């Protein structure tokens, strides 16, 4: 009998798969229109392209301090009330910021609450860390949270609470009354709050209230991926409680050493006056895409099937079919969408579409979805 010398994956990966969205994208035929991936598919603005080229011409990319360039950390800290540059850690995108925060904070067996619907990476990382996960569902309207219902649990049982504001996929974002509730909950507990603000700059009505300066044990995650069309540069950050700066820096060193220096130098430009025109241009493009998507959907879909958020590049479509099977069927027809089940039970039988692409591609893709669900 021959000895089985095959390797097996670490036990921590049991039950961990590529996200449902990624699996559907991988199975789609070549040339499919992607309305699933969480990025704005516009061209990088010329000013950012030119600055990236200038930086490459003038600098040989080298290691930076583990926590990032001091100038960039100062700019990041300035975005938040009472934050210091020591609290700002530069990361490879928002997802590494999330991983480093949880990796530094959560022990096996800790109970962590997650606002649902939730970005799938939240629960996957928590499973890898051996945490006990409790989902806190939004109300059915996907625009509000019943804090009273979950107050005691968050105050007395959870070690940490993860949420995104604006939320992916629902577009919900914290209002003043939400922040008041969370401040009150945290004032009587050691609850750590991890808030993912990746979509903060993509709001169409109002703006998210901030927990900065209101909650002591706060981890605030940000990124340039959406607002600056810099998803491929993987530039993110996390602002941490003062007593966690050294821990996050150690974690960053052993996970990825540092974020690429070219990306950090470009971020210095992007967060300064030079980046303002770029973000304005991107937002105008997003408004145009949003207008095209809404005009089409309102003309062709029943009003009660549309969830139109006040933030994010997403619209949620309700359907009376298995959303995973429907997404797989649409992918075979060269239109990729994300099934709502990927984000939790309260968005099942929904589809998330990303409308952040030019109308010439967007409208034909929406026609395919419409004809599949509402054939003439």
What does this protein look like?
With 376 residues, this protein is α/β, with parallel strands linked by helices. The protein folds into two domains: 11-45 and 276-373, Aspartate Aminotransferase, domain 1, CATH 3.90.1150; 61-274, Type I PLP-dependent aspartate aminotransferase-like (Major domain) (Aspartate Aminotransferase, domain 2, 3-Layer(aba) Sandwich), CATH 3.40.640. It is built from twelve helices and 13 strands. The strands form three sheets. It has a seven-stranded mixed β-sheet, with helices on both faces. It has a four-stranded antiparallel β-sheet with strand order 9-10-13-12. β3 (111-116), α5 (120-128) and β4 form a beta-alpha-beta unit. α4 crosses α8. The longest helix is centred in the C-terminal third of the chain and has 25 residues, at 276-300. It is globular, with a radius of gyration of 21 Å. The mean pLDDT is 94.
């Amino acid at each position: 009998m021959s000895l089985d010398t095959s390797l097996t994956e670490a036990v921590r990966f049991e039950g961990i798969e590529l996200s449902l969205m990624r699996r559907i994208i991988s199975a789609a035929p070549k040339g499919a229109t992607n309305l699933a991936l969480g990025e704005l598919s516009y061209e990088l603005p010329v000013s950012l392209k030119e600055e990236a080229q200038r930086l490459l011409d003038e600098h040989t990319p080298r290691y930076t301090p583990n926590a990032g360039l001091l100038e960039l950390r100062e700019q990041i800290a300035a975005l938040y009330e009472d934050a210091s540059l020591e609290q700002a850690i530069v990361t490879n995108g928002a997802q590494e910021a999330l991983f480093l925060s949880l990796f530094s904070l959560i022990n096996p067996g800790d109970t962590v609450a997650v606002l649902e619907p939730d970005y799938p990476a939240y629960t996957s990382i928590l499973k890898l860390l051996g945490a006990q996960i409790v989902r806190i569902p939004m109300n059915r309207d996907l625009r509000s949270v019943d804090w009273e219902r979950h107050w005691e649990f968050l105050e007395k049982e959870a070690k940490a609470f993860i949420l995104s504001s604006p939320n992916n996929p629902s577009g919900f974002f914290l209002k003043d009354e939400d922040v008041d509730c969370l401040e009150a909950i945290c004032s009587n507990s050691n609850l750590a709050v991890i808030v993912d603000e990746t979509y903060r700059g993509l709001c169409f009505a109002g703006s998210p209230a901030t927990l900065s300066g209101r909650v002591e044990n706060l981890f605030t995650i940000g990124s340039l991926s959406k607002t600056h069309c810099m998803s491929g540069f993987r530039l993110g950050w996390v602002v941490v409680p003062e007593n966690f700066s050294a821990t996050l820096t150690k974690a960053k060193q052993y996970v990825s050493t540092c974020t690429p220096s070219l990306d950090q130098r470009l971020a210095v430009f992007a967060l300064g006056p030079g980046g303002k025109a770029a973000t304005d241009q991107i937002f105008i493009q997003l408004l145009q895409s949003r207008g095209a998507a809404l005009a089409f959907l309102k003309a062709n879909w029943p009003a009660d099937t549309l969830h139109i958020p006040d933030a994010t590049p997403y619209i949620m479509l309700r359907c009376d079919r298995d959303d995973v099977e429907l997404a797989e069927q649409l992918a075979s027809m060269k239109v990729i969408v994300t099934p709502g089940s990927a984000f939790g039970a309260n968005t099942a039988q929904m589809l998330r579409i990303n409308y952040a692409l030019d109308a010439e591609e967007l409208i034909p893709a929406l026609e395919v979805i419409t004809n599949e669900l509402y054939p003439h």
